[in-house]
TrEMBL record, chain A:
Signal peptide: none annotated. It comes from the Eukaryota. PANTHER family: UBIQUITIN-CONJUGATING ENZYME E2. PROSITE patterns: UBC_1 (PS00183), UBC_2 (PS50127). The active site is at residue 87. One of its GO terms (biological process) is protein ubiquitination. Residues 3-149 form the UBC core domain. This is Ubiquitin-conjugating enzyme E2 N. CDD domains: UBCc_UBE2N (cd23813). InterPro entries: UBC (IPR000608), UBQ-conjugating_AS (IPR023313), UBQ-conjugating_enzyme/RWD (IPR016135). Keywords: ATP-binding, Nucleotide-binding, Transferase, Ubl conjugation pathway. Belongs to the ubiquitin-conjugating enzyme family. GO terms for molecular function: ATP binding; transferase activity.
Automatic annotation (TrEMBL), chain B:
Keywords: Metal-binding, Phosphoprotein, Repeat, Signal, Transferase, Ubl conjugation pathway, Zinc, Zinc-finger. GO terms for cellular component: cytosol; mitochondrion. CDD domains: RING-HC_RBR_parkin (cd16627), RING0_parkin (cd21382). This is E3 ubiquitin-protein ligase parkin. Residues 16-91 form the Ubiquitin-like domain. It comes from Mizuhopecten yessoensis. Residues 1-25 form the signal peptide. GO terms for biological process: positive regulation of metabolic process; protein ubiquitination; ubiquitin-dependent protein catabolic process. The keyword Phosphoprotein applies. The keyword Zinc-finger applies. GO terms for molecular function: polyubiquitin modification-dependent protein binding; ubiquitin-protein transferase activity; zinc ion binding.
């Protein structure tokens, strides 16, 4: 871990010692800035029981710029596109150097509980969500069953 | 702590030259050892001036110096100017008694705490330097004033009229006067009344608090004025400002100007004095100033000239549809610049 800023070392240690419920984040053996992440689908959401894999990368400028996070598991969600990119304000203009890996992953978990079709990234999914929400939730459940379990 | 005592070649000196001013027409240069006491200085003066040592009182930064304090305790640099006055001992026997009785340890402890309490941005040194607080009389501008009480906070120092003192100069002759505070850089020997901008959010990190960005415990640090007093180290402060400047992410506020909140985003956490942005270095500070001006112009209904390389901002006085940019018109562009014809008017 030579040359790794103390902040990243401390955050990694804390993620290991005090893991967040429903979230795991393990640094890659060869790259301490790359994390293998899993997020468990929150209860009473269409993603319940699913285990979603994500990748998280801390760029050189971190924590001045946001971590880059992407879903690797396919997911049916209005704010996550088919490439796994996430529309979340704190990963863009609302990023602050006082936020951490932990807070980012908690926000992503919260996004699974509360999809926001009014600020969509995947337009088709958002349209489906707005026109027939119960049908969209069924599709999301089916995708979870197919890809995340 | 010896920083202020180094001479320009960086060598530590064991003696320094002080100037003790008795009045505008009478001042005495004295060579003093750092280990010598205020009383030793008084004895030296006493021999030079033929005045009994017990009649001499020396003032520094609004306080009468206790006899037992050493020059080292005072944290003053070479070529410092001290002020003095003479007074028959009986008149303030009690006061002197107090000063030296509870005084001595107290004075040095208090001075110890004061060490590096303030930081200034020094234009001469072009960097952050420990600063020292100095006082003068509002009326005669001299340093012969003795404070009635010490300042407790920045408001006491920065707002006029909160602290008064007794001025011992010939002109004021013991009258009650308003006190003027100012800050000096400890990094170089300046003129007696040379001032430096104090950076009120920069403090020593005595409690080893963690920087909210890098989790290190460096010192000094910026302490934001939010309720939780979030702390950021100066390196992170610079990168935080530059990143936000690149995004034009500063906030224009009518009270504090173009500023930044604490990185956590707490309410009421804007940096209250733009001098702090001097810490970004000359180039970034220039950028900060031009962005700040542009933001001010735009928020107050002004316009910016769109001509390439111009960008002058101006506030409109009349409700006309088109205005001519005052800068371009004055010919600040090349005469054959083809863009001028197209751009020297700004449509609203």
């Amino acid at each position: 871990m030579a040359g790794l800023p103390r902040r990243i070392i401390k955050e990694t240690q804390r993620l290991m010692q005090e893991p967040v419920s429903g979230i795991t984040a393990l640094p890659d053996e060869n790259n301490a800035r790359y994390f293998h992440v899993t997020v468990i689908g929150p209860k009473e959401s269409p993603y319940e029981n699913g285990t979603f894999k994500l990748e998280l990368f801390l760029p050189e400028e971190y924590p001045m710029s946001a971590p880059k996070v992407r879903f690797l598991t396919k997911i049916y969600h209005p704010n996550i596109d088919k490439l796994g990119r996430i529309c979340l304000d704190i990963l863009k203009d609302k990023w602050s150097p006082a936020l951490q890996i932990r807070t980012v992953l908690l926000s992503i978990q919260a996004l699974l509980s509360a999809p926001n079709p009014d600020d969509p990234l995947a337009n088709e999914v958002a349209d489906a969500w707005k026109s027939d929400e119960s049908q969209a939730i069924e599709t999301a459940k089916a995708w979870t069953q197919k890809h995340a379990i | 702590m010896f920083r202020a005592l180094r001479n320009r070649s960086g060598l530590q000196m064991s003696t320094i030259l002080l100037t003790v001013k008795f009045s505008s027409s009478c001042s005495c240069p004295v060579d003093v050892d750092l280990e010598s006491s205020v009383l030793d200085v008084k004895s030296t003066l006493s021999k030079q001036l033929q005045i009994p040592a017990e009649e001499i009182q020396i003032i520094l930064a609004g306080r009468i110096l206790a006899d037992k304090s050493t020059i080292k305790d005072l944290c003053i640099g070479n070529c410092s100017v001290l002020h003095a006055f003479t007074q028959k001992p009986p008149e303030f026997d009690v006061k002197v008694g107090n000063e030296s009785a509870d005084g001595n340890t107290n004075t040095s402890v208090r001075k110890g705490e004061l060490r590096y309490q303030y930081f200034v941005f020094c234009k001469e040194c072009q960097c952050l330097q420990p600063g020292k607080l100095r006082v003068s009389c509002q009326s005669c501008k001299s340093g012969y004033i003795i404070l009635y009480r010490d300042p407790d906070n920045f408001d006491d120092v920065q707002q006029r009229g909160r602290i008064n003192g007794e001025c011992k100069s010939e002109q004021c002759n013991g009258q009650q006067r308003e006190v003027e505070f100012y800050f000096k850089c400890t990094g170089h020997q300046g003129e007696e009344r040379e001032t430096a901008a104090v950076l009120k959010h920069v403090r020593p990190n005595r409690k080893h608090r963690l920087c909210v960005v890098c989790s290190e415990t460096g010192s000094p640090v910026m302490v934001f004025p939010c309720e939780r007093r979030h702390v950021i180290c100066l390196d992170c402060f610079k990168s935080y400002c530059v990143v936000r400047l690149n995004d034009r992410g500063f906030t224009e506020n009518e009270n504090v100007g173009y500023s930044l909140p604490c990185p956590v985003g707490c309410p009421n956490s804007l940096i209250e004095d733009p001098h702090h942005f001097c810490l970004l270095g000359v180039d970034q500070y220039e950028r900060y100033k031009s962005f700040a001006t542009e933001e001010y112009v735009l928020q107050n209904g002004g316009v910016l000239c769109p001509a390439v390389g111009c960008g002058s901002g101006f506030l409109l006085t009349e409700a006309s549809r088109k205005v001519t940019c005052p800068t371009c018109q004055k010919g600040s562009h090349q005469k054959d610049d083809p863009t001028i014809d197209n751009y020297h008017t700004v449509s609203l």
